[in-house]
Every structure is written in C-alpha cells, then in structure tokens.
UniProtKB/TrEMBL annotation, chains A, B, C, D:
Domain of life: Bacteria
Alphabetized SUPFAM superfamilies for the sequence: 6-phosphogluconate dehydrogenase C-terminal domain-like (SSF48179), NAD(P)-binding Rossmann-fold domains (SSF51735)
Ranges where the 3-hydroxyisobutyrate dehydrogenase-like NAD-binding domain occurs: 166-284
Listed name of the protein: Oxidoreductase
MF terms in GO: NAD binding; NADP binding; oxidoreductase activity
Keywords on record: NAD, Oxidoreductase
Similarity annotation: Belongs to the HIBADH-related family.
Length: 288, 288, 288, 288
C-alpha cells in the first residue's frame, strides 16, 4: 500500500480519492476550498492538507483532478505547488482534461526533477467516478505507467497507455470530436422525428441496432425527445474541451469543420441559458 | 403459403426474393433487365415474368425493391405496372428507399383500389439481405402490416410498424441523418488521430466503450485509418438518400444544418472519384 | 414599334409591361388572375387577353415573368400556352428566375418551332422594375438576343448576353450565391457589433470604404442593426432561388458548403415566421 | 512638430514612420532587427534606437506596429519597454491588430502612469501604408484621440474614434467577419461560374452593380478566376485575426458559425501550402 496525495476534490476527485483510501492506501487530500478536504477526511478517514506541497510531502504518487490549465499549473508549479515537494522516483498523474501543451511541459519539468509524469484524463462521468468505472487515457513513459496503473485500476474499468506525454490528452480530444458529430446528428434526427409525427421510442428502437447506432442514441435519444437535459457532462465543460481540441488542431494544422461549427452551436445553447445542461442539449437550438 | 410477386432483383432484391421462394412461397419475379429474372428463376426455381403486371397477376403480396421514385412509379402506376393487375385485398410492400411523398401517393392510389400499401425501406446492406437479417421500417395501415409482417420476417431480424403511410421512409431518413453526423465526426477524429501520431487501433479501442462509441466506430474506424473504403453502402446512394431527407425536411420546415453540410462534403468525395466508395470515405476529403 | 405579349403581372411584371406600352409598343397582357390584367389595361391602355395563347397571337415578342418552373411550363407548353400560338421568327424571353434545366428545355422546344428563346432573369427588385433600372442576365442565341435587347432596354439599366440557353439563369445563380455569403457574414458582423457595444453606424461608416465593403453593407447594415427587415426580396423567394442553385450545383458536381448551410439558416428564419422578411433577416437567428 | 517614437518597421510600419518624418516630425524608430531601423534612418533621416525605451525617451507620441499580443506586450511592458520611459501626458497609439483584451490592459496600465493609450488598428494593406491612405479604427479616450488624430492623418484617408479602449480592435474584428463571409461566398460563386462554362469577366461585370456587389468582387473575382492569389493580405495573417475574433466572440458569448467554419477552411488552404496566398485563395479548396 502506498502514500498517496490527491489534489482536487470536485465531483470526480472526491469519490476517486475515496476509492484509493478504501483500497488501503494512505491518502492525503488537498482542495482549494479547504472545507471540502476536511469533509472528505471526515468521511473517508484520510488526511487533509493545507497546500498541494503539504499533501505531496513523502507521497509516492500524486494525483490531480482540477479544472483548467491554470489550475493545474498552480497546484504543480505554483507557490506551494506539489512539484517542489515531490521526491525523485515519485509519480505525478493528472486526471484533469487540459491542453496537450501543458501535459508536455509538466512531463519535461518532471523529468528534470526525476518525477515520472503522466497525463491521464478520464471519461465516464460522475457515475463512473463513484462506481470506479472510469476509462483512463494515459500519456507518458512506460515505467511511470507501469507503476501507476495498478493504483488507478481501483477507480477504472479501463486504463490504456496511448503514447508519450500528451497522448492521454489527445486521445481524450478524439473522444470529444466524435461526440460533437454524433450529438449534432442526433439532435437533427430527434427534431426531424418529432416534426414528422413519429414516435421517438419506436424509431430509435428500430434503428438502434444498425449502422446509425451510438452510445448517445442508446442513452440519450429518449431523454432528448422528452426535453430532459440533466444527464451529466455540461455544455460549459464540453466547450472547455472543444477549445482544447481546436487549439491542438491548430498546432497540428488539422481542419475540423463540423467540430468548429458544433462548438459555435454549443455557444448558442449557452446563450439560451443552457451552460449547465448536458451535451445532448444541442436539440434546444431547434426546440427551445 | 402465398402467391408472391417480387419486382427488382438488384443486390438486395435478388437474395430477398430467394428467401421467399426457399420458405415455400410461390414467387414470380420481374426485373427491368429480363436476363436477371431468368437467372433468378434458374437458381431458385420460381417463375420469371416479362412485366410487373404479369408478375402481379393473382399475387396476394407484391414486393418491390427498385432504385428511385421514378422507377417505383413505373413498376406500380406505369404501363404494365403492377397496380392495374392487383386484386382488391392484396398487399403491396415497397422496400425501396424513396420519398415519403411517393409513399403517401401510392397509399392513396392503393386505397382507391382496395390494395393495402406499405412503405418498407430496409437497412442492413447486402449482407443483411443475403443472411436474412434486415431491419425493415414500415409505414402503412395496421391490417396490411399484420398480413405482410410474417412474410417479410423470412429476410428480417427486425420489422417495425412506425405509423401511417410514409412513416417507414421518414424513419429511414432519421437513420441517415444520424449516420451523416456520426461519420463526419469520425472522419475528423480519425484524421486528428493520425496527425497526432496516435495509434488508431489503441485509441478507438480505449474510447470505444464509452460516450463516443458508435456502430461506425466499432466497424469502420480501423478501415478508415487504413484508407479502405470498400465496405458497402456507396456515397452515390447516400447522396440519393440525403436528397430525400433534405426534400422531406423542406416539406416539414425542419432545419438540418450539419446534414446539409455533410451532403456537400459527400459531393466533394464524388468529385474526387469516390462515388462508389462507402460512406466512411468522408475521410478522403482530409487525406486524399 | 412591335406587337408584344407580356405574361405575368406580379410586382415585377406589372410595371415592366407598363414601360413597354409607354414606349409605344402595342402590348397585350395575360395574368392568371384576370382582374389584374384588366387593371393593367385600364391603367396603361393596352389589351388584356384571357389566355397566354390569346395574348401571344400575332406577337413578335412574348415576355414572361411568372413564379416557378411549373408556372412557366404552363404558360408556354400547357393548354392554351403561348408556344402553340407563336409564329416562326418570333422571340420568347423569360424574366422568371427558374431552373437552368427548364430554360434549356424551352430553348429546344422553341428551336423546333422556329421561335427564338431567351432565358432572361432579372435583378434589381421592385424598385428596379418600376424605375426601369433592372439588370437582365440573358442566355440564348445571339440573333434572338440582338432583336430582343433593344426592346428590353426600356426597363433595364444593364442587359448582358451571358452565353447559350440557361446561361442567364446560371448567372443569376452566381448572384444569389454571392449574396448568401455576404449576408450571413454581415449578420454575424452586425450581431458582434451590437454585442460589443459599438455604434453600428460609426462602425459600418469607417469600414465601409475598404475590403469589407459590399452593397449589402452600404444599404442594409443600418436597417439590420435597427431590426428592420422590410426592404424587398423575401426569404421565401430567396429559398426558392437557393433551391435552384443547389439543384444546378448538383448537376455540375459543384460543392457549395456555405450556400447550403445558409439555405438551412434561412429555413430557421422561415420557422421564426420570417418568410416575408427581406434577405437580411438572417440576423434574426441571433437576435429574434 | 512633435517628438515621435515608432516601434516596429515591418511592411506597414516602415512607410508609416517615413510619412511622419517627411511631415516634419522628429522620429526615432526601433525595430527588433536593428539593421532595419538603421536602414530606415539612412533612408528617411530620423534616428534609430536600440530599445523601445530608448526610442520613447522624451517622445510626445509613441506609435507601435508589431506582430502579435506578445510582441506588443514586450515593446510596452517588457524589459526596456516604452511605458517605463514615457512621461505623463504623452500618448501611446498601437496600430497592431491584437486582442481587445490587451488593448484594455494597456489602457489601464497607461492610465495609472498618466499616459493616454489608443488602440488603433489599420486596414488598407501595404499599398495604403505606402500611399498614406489607411483607415484607422481607434479605441480610447477622446482627449488622447484629439491629440493623436492630426498626427495619424499623415498616413490615413480615414480616422474614426469608435469608443472606449478596445473599440478599435473590435471594429477591426467586424471588418474581418464581413470579409470571411464575402470571400467564401465569392469562392463558391467563382467555382460555380467556371464549372458552368460561363465567362467570369462577363458574369461579374453584369452582376457587379447590384445587390451581390462587394469590394472583393470588384477587385478579386477576376484574379481568383485566373488562379492568382498574390494580392496582399495573407491567409496566415487572416487566421491570426480570425483567432482574435473568435476569442473576443467567446468573451461576448456571440455565435459566429460561418466565421468559425471559414476559419477552418483557411486552415485547409494553409495545409495546401497557401499560407502566404492572399485571402481570396479560399477558391483553392475547390480548384487546387
């Protein structure tokens, strides 16, 4: 069993850190709002620290799950950041969805200090974090991956090493590109279905076994047709991710016409007040 | 067992009519090119007729699977078309993907003659036709459906009555709208994957269990990454279907921004010489 | 001075026929609603006929300005259509915006009868028709053009022979493609201006002399910013024209991604009840 | 006559600074590559300085025309930047196209030091800079504007105060949004024209006086049809500007669907090797 620090106790990090403690690790947590860390310790029995550095003191593994590039930079390289406190041979694994650029930068910073750094964004949503059924897409060196992978398994159903530093983030981007196309198509399809007077349940049941099938159709067509958009990943976060996608595509010189267009459509949803709706709310552009 | 006529022996109709004959029905076939009808009869043991009307003489069920609206009009209402030869109480079921408008028109024509008319487009491709595993989306009256459904089961894995006349066609349109969005997203994703230096097999394996999953990802991401576009439904036919979709959306006043855009992108693929490529060839716009 | 028939007395045809009569020609008019023809004769002093054929009897020139392909087909080749009444050596010039296909078909029909046929769609709007300041884009044979051109000058500021039959229509399509791109860009720009808190009048004044200038900016940016959409060519008619554009582009295998997308956006405007708004109402998609 | 510093002697800044010196001002220039500054002084007779601070020493007006946000930050607030050397009561006017965010930031920085700050991006291209015929869109306080405006007139045909700090930049963004829509529409139109077999010169001549007219049509339709893309503002710079536009639209919550799409299309042009082509090269996506 290992000494572990976990930085960031949002809707994802809170249960993830809990899984680690329950698995027998000795977990010290840090959260920007200290009360959340104390609540976590009260519930799970680990320790709450006041700073990322304090949490990382003596840890073999430091995990992070914060918000954006600047938050990640702060908890790693900022004042009282964890990197200064980590010892050579320890591993830092970041579960935040951030830019591939900062993932590569942290990998270099870590290498200079003897810290193994992994970018390890996740998918599976809040339910996946709570049930320990996340998919983790990892970028970084094989050696660090080999050590961290068994630890992360406690909250994962799937962990894959995708390539060198940044590859976890770019794999997550591929995921979001696919989702953008699927959901805009599905939104147009659901709207067409309703305007045609067809019964959405019957329609998606009959076409849902063939070439038009998608996880989103299986799980969201019905809720979309019912005008319910309260099933997880929010538009505001999707737009953050699509911003990262478009930024990396810029670096690569890769054209993403429909992804860029759907990103604008999500902005329309935000303008309608739907920033906290789930990503299937593209249908609202047609139906209000 | 029933007297059945089958009009149109293309890659779909040929094996479908064969399933009917093998199931014990007495099948008479018609095909525009008469030789194909004689070949069918030689292989399956039914009868070849010279005209749709001749094939339909005395039939309880007439099935059609031709190309476009004008072909369907010809074999039903044209000179020597089947409608004139069909008797009151018989059923006409059309497996062609055509406009909802002609489906409704034929239903009215049939009603005036006491013929039950079903629009019954299919999905599942050539393999589905050969293996008797098609999905059939049916529009029309319940009574006609109740009689034809057991007959169609011989080549179907799934048959659903979607609503009144035209509903089979509009359901098929929903299917194609979904596919257009999925495949453009997947094309952007595969291109991004390759330009990122990621291994497509690893990427789509790890993300293929979650919210980005689709039948197309499961079955086509790998072939797309390999630049192989020889897996069935051709771009030329997809554009025919998207033309029907956009026409019906016009009638309904439904906006389909990404479907319309992807339809133009498929036109680019045609201009690159890819009209016979399968629908996943949207990737060629990025990679040649 | 010539014997002239004019078929179709809408907001364009009515004043155009008036210009011809005032110029000294002997004009006989036909309109689907006969009262309009009688009103015209009462006002301008020419003759009203009951059918296209009756109007065309003995005419050296027959002009038409009706609504759609099917209307044009009716007044030319339909029962009591003008073609049967026209004599060899006469000229038929069509001012309707219709498909290039019907323009080519009528040219062939005319050639078989010794009638010179010109497709001659116009731009310039109702004001242009009233002030005799239309632009006329003509397709057809040089000889017919040479004879009709001086007659059409009476309501034109510009008449150009663009090429063989259909070329007038395809030239008009080029016009509409340009307008679609300009107006969507301008709608996004006006919305951005207003949301930025800038003064639209000042902004379009300062940028209106350079590379962003357009007739639409000069004439519509201000009215758009004021939410006024009552300045002529209606969305319903623009969508008719864009349908012709997309159909001809289909025949040519030409991709029109933004034109197709803007056509869908105009459909959104129709769904908002803006079918009679002018074409600058794309801004309503952003501002209601 | 005034003491003036000019920072940045690119294709725009070099002739602009020359106009100031020729008008009788005493101009000190700075350029990142010092040789360019010495060349300028050799040609125009002013002074070359080694740093922005040195150039700004004692100046009443400091103008800048550099590349991007980070360049502007460096010459103003960086080591040896001009702000530290400027005295209370002096005016800083930036002609670079940069983000509205940095324009607002510099305005605040300036206010704290008693420096009047204007964001004053330009349009009109290299020819406009050389001929003193630029359009200048200015954001900032009226008092600073009143003092700088007569000085800037020496290289301007048009100078407008658009509003508070940042308004010059946002006005320039409006300009670029308009251009993106116009040029994509025009590219589709030129391609359609050529594929239709029409003569582009005749087509754009006849439609160029009406509702489809634009500066781009007047000046670029012919060169586009000839496949010539060597007329000024480069795609690489347009994409920089569209990046600023999309960033500001993000801040404002304004949707720009076609602007975002055209930005991706320009990326395609870059991928074809057209980064140095002028902005009309969107046509290359269709014609190679």
């Amino acid at each position: 069993m290992a000494e572990i620090a976990f930085l960031g106790l949002g809707v994802m990090g809170f249960p993830m850190a809990g899984h680690l403690q329950r698995a027998g690790h000795s977990v010290t947590v840090y959260n920007r709002t200290a009360k959340k860390a104390r609540d976590w310790a009260a519930k799970h029995g680990g320790t709450a620290a006041e700073t990322p550095a304090a949490a990382a003191e003596g840890a073999e593994f430091v995990f992070a799950c914060v918000g954006r590039d600047e938050d990640l930079r702060k908890v790693t390289l900022g004042e009282d950041g964890c990197f200064a406190a980590m010892t050579s041979g320890s591993v830092f694994a970041d579960h935040t969805t951030v830019s591939a650029a900062i993932a590569r930068e942290l990998a270099e910073e870590g290498a200079a200090r003897g810290i193994g750094v992994l970018d390890a964004p996740i998918s599976g949503g809040q339910a996946g974090a709570e049930n320990g059924a996340l998919t983790i897409m990892v970028g970084g060196a094989e050696e660090a991956f080999a050590r961290a992978e068994p630890v992360m398994q406690v909250y994962a159903k799937r962990v894959g090493l995708m390539g060198p530093a940044g590859s976890g983030q770019t794999t997550k981007m591929v995921n979001q590109i696919c989702i953008a196309g699927i959901l805009q198509g599905l939104a147009e399809a659901v709207n067409f279905t309703l305007e045609s007077g067809l019964d959405p349940e019957a329609v998606f049941d009959v076409i849902g076994k063939g070439a038009a099938q998608s996880w989103q159709m299986d799980n969201r067509a019905g809720t979309m047709a019912a005008g319910e958009y309260d099933f997880g990943f929010a538009v505001d976060w999707m737009r953050k991710d699509l911003g990262l996608v478009l930024g990396e595509a810029e670096r690569l010189g890769v054209s993403l016409p429909v992804t860029a267009l759907v990103d604008q459509f999500y902005k329309d949803v935000q303008a309608m007040g739907g920033g906290r709706n789930d990503t299937s709310s593209l249908l609202r552009r047609f139906r209000g």
